[in-house]
Design a protein that fits this description.
Belongs to the avfA family. This is NAD(P)-binding domain-containing protein. One of its GO terms (molecular function) is biliverdin reductase [NAD(P)H] activity. Helix 1 packs across helix 6 and helix 3 packs parallel to helix 5. Helix 1 links the parallel strand 1 and strand 2. The chain is of the alpha/beta class. The chain binds NADP nicotinamide-adenine-dinucleotide phosphate. NADP nicotinamide-adenine-dinucleotide phosphate binds next to strand 5 and helix 5.
């Protein structure tokens, strides 16, 4: 992509989102963010079009304006505590997706977890066990991600969306290059997940459109 595009990054202050923002800026793109805390953006704030707000204040956010002029929307949102009993992402997506449609957004990437089931799909025995033991505290987050995947599959097939069912273990240095996989799943760093999602989004090929795959190291 030689020209500068406008990205809207949701979750820009998070583990994956912050790396995604850095990468997009580095490549000469413009980046709009919606954040709860300006302070968390640090000095990078000056390079961004910053909107302050919470996705839980659905009625207060003018989503049509939020996505105006935006080419690519990426969601790296998560709040484990709130998602215990509320599907905050799903509720926000129900308002955001019609705005994306109206404003002609080119692509939407939603980062879910590798332990979230794709719509009408299932988890391997190993991943099911991991979800229900060591990772059981994240169940609400997975249920929210699954509601979003169902919504995208059943009500937003007219949009070019892709879901990255990421596996994340740490915020350390890069461990390599991730690629898309229907079956193989790697525990990656935030940085590598962000890099992978970025490459997926700007890839002119359409192979990943309407998929909800894992990523694994090459
Ligand atoms: N972390 C993992 O181990 C892991 C593994 C696999 C998949 N995932 C998936 O990847 C996604 C992102 O993961 P992550 O680890 O990068 O997330 P993270 O570090 O927890 O960051 C989440 C981001 O979402 C923002 N956010 C949360 N609630 C918000 C709200 N109400 N309004 C606006 N922004 C809000 C946070 O803002 P604040 O900075 O204000 O909190 C933060 O920027 C999640 O959906 C998760 O399911 C995560």
């Amino acid at each position: 992509m030689s020209t500068s595009s406008l990205f809207l990054v949701l979750g820009a202050t998070g583990g994956t989102g912050k790396h995604f923002v850095t990468r997009a800026l580095h490549d000469g793109h413009r980046v709009r963010v919606l954040v709860r805390s300006l302070q968390k953006l640090g000095t990078q704030a000056k390079d961004l079009d910053v909107w302050e707000g919470s996705i839980t204040d659905v009625d207060k956010i003018d989503t049509d304006k939020l996505v105006e002029g935006v080419d690519y929307v990426v969601s790296m949102l998560g709040d484990k505590e709130l998602q215990r009993d509320k599907k905050i992402n799903y509720l926000f997506m129900q308002k955001l997706v019609p705005s994306m449609r109206k404003q002609g957004v080119k692509r939407f990437l939603y980062q879910a977890g590798g332990l979230s089931k794709p719509y009408q799909g299932s988890l391997s025995w190993t991943l099911w066990l991991l979800r229900n033991t060591l990772a059981s505290g994240f169940n609400g987050q997975h249920l929210d991600n699954e509601a979003v995947m169902e919504y995208l599959e059943t009500q937003a097939k007219d949009l070019d969306w892709m879901v990255h069912r990421a596996g994340i273990i740490s915020d350390g240095e890069s461990k390599g290059t991730l690629q898309r996989s229907k079956t193989k799943f790697s525990m990656a760093t935030h940085r590598d997940c962000a890099d992978y999602s970025y490459r997926l989004m700007i890839d002119p090929a359409r192979d990943a459109v309407h998929t909800s795959d894992f990523s694994c190291y090459v």
